[in-house]
């Protein structure tokens, strides 16, 4: 029995390396890619401002809202690429590939930690590692990752993602710390890494909501019923979110300013139309995750958008029905509702 356990442990230690190699092998072809005339020309080929890490370049990176994004840290990595590779696309794609491979490994460790927390009773550590490895590989090589890895402009995706995942991992380490000093260290780490994520891309503004869900399950630091969050222990857990919420709010405001002119007012389609779009988007991307075919870098609204059309109504009803079902069965399958 002990020999089998030792063998399982040795095999499990290889999982991060296997995940790394599978990710690199799957996306190695991007190293032969060039730049594309879909923002790469504007961001990289014809843009002199990011070329280097001198005072003027850094000043531009940390103050610009170029093309509707505030992403200074992503610009810094592109500036480093320029110093090493000039405008040779090979180097830019290599950096993005390395970042994505790192994401896959971090995803594995994060998934393993979450599964361990969820399966507190009678858990098989080797089975947990296999499940985490499967999740990491599925995340890493899924066709929906292609745009972020193969398109040089989307450096912000793989960079912000790395810090986003790492911030969650640090937060979980803080939440499960056995000493106050370890708790403070990991919580400070989570906040610091979160800042790096927001400086890479504003999409990380969703993190406070993610942490709140994880506090309910699988961390079990909050009751599933928000009406029971008035106790002292719950208030402390909620209070931890203050720095994350403040940072997310600042990023949201900055993102809205950056997108001035690109965003359309609610009145353009009305509240019902916006809700219809949201329901359809949720169902659309869930379906693309299950059946990733017919993918495109852009999905535009049809010229004559009618929220009452069958596809939008069916999508919205499906989302509502799934939500109700997961709420009803939340005690039997809490992970399902947490993921949803």
Question: Can you give a write-up of this model?
Answer:
By secondary structure, the protein is mostly helical. Helix content is 67%, strand content 0%. The protein has helices spanning 2-13, 15-27, 40-45, 55-61, 72-85, 89-118, 125-141, 146-150, 155-175, 180-200, 207-216, 232-239, 242-258, 270-290, 310-328, 334-339. Helix 2 (15-27) runs antiparallel to helix 6 (89-118), helix 9 runs antiparallel to helix 10 and helix 14 (270-290) packs across helix 15. It is globular, with a radius of gyration of 22 Å. The model has no long low-confidence stretch (mean pLDDT 93).
Walk me through the topology:
Layout: H1 2-13, H2 15-27, H3 40-45, H4 55-61, H5 72-85, H6 89-118, H7 125-141, H8 146-150, H9 155-175, H10 180-200, H11 207-216, H12 232-239, H13 242-258, H14 270-290, H15 310-328, H16 334-339
Helix pairs in contact: 2-6, 2-7, 5-6, 5-9, 6-7, 6-9, 9-10, 10-13, 14-15
Which descriptors would you attach to this protein?
globular
Short description, anyone?
With 340 residues, the protein is an all-alpha fold. The protein contains 16 helices and no strands.
Roughly how many Å apart are the termini?
Answer: 39 Å
**Bulk shape:** globular
Please indicate the percent range of residues in DSSP E strands (runs of 2 or more). under 5%
Average of per-residue pLDDT values: 93
Low-confidence stretches: none
Please tally the helical runs, counting DSSP H or I stretches of 4 or more residues.
16
- Counting helices, strands and paired strands, the structural category is mainly alpha
Summarize the amount of helix as a percent range.
55-70%
Major sheet size, sense and barrel closure: none
Care to count the β-strands? Answer: 0
Question: How many whole angstroms does the radius of gyration measure?
Answer: 22 Å
The string of secondary-structure elements, in order, is HHHHHHHHHHHHHHHH
């Amino acid at each position: 029995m002990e020999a089998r356990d030792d063998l399982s442990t040795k095999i499990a230690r290889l999982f991060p390396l296997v995940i790394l190699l599978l990710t690199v092998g799957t996306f190695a072809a991007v190293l032969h890619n060039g730049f594309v005339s879909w923002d790469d020309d504007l961001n990289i080929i014809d843009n002199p401002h990011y070329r280097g890490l001198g005072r003027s370049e850094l000043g531009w990176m940390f103050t610009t809202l170029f093309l509707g994004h505030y992403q200074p840290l992503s610009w810094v990595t592109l500036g480093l690429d320029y110093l090493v590779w000039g405008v040779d696309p090979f180097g830019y794609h290599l950096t993005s590939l390395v970042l994505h491979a790192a994401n896959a490994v971090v995803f594995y460790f994060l998934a393993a930690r979450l599964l361990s927390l969820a399966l507190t009773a009678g858990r098989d550590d080797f089975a947990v590692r296999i499940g985490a490895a499967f999740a990491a590989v599925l995340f890493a090589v899924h066709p929906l990752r292609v745009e972020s890895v193969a398109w040089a402009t989307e450096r912000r995706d793989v960079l912000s993602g790395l810090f986003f995942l790492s911030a969650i991992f640090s937060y979980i380490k803080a939440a499960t710390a056995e000493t106050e000093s370890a708790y403070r260290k990991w919580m400070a780490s989570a906040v610091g890494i979160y800042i790096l994520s927001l400086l890479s891309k504003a999409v990380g503004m969703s993190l406070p909501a993610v942490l709140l869900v994880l506090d309910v399950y699988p961390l079990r630091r909050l009751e599933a019923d928000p009406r029971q969050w008035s106790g002292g222990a719950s208030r402390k857990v909620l209070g931890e979110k203050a720095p994350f919420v403040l940072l997310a709010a600042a990023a949201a405001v900055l993102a809205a300013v950056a997108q001035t002119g690109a965003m359309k007012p609610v009145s353009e389609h009305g509240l019902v139309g916006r809700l219809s779009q949201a329901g359809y988007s949720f169902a659309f991307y869930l379906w693309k995750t299950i059946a990733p075919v017919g993918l495109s870098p852009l999905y535009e609204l049809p010229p004559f958008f009618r929220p009452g059309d069958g596809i939008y109504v069916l999508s919205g009803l499906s989302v509502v029905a799934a939500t109700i079902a997961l709420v009803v069965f939340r005690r039997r399958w809490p992970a399902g509702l947490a993921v949803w």
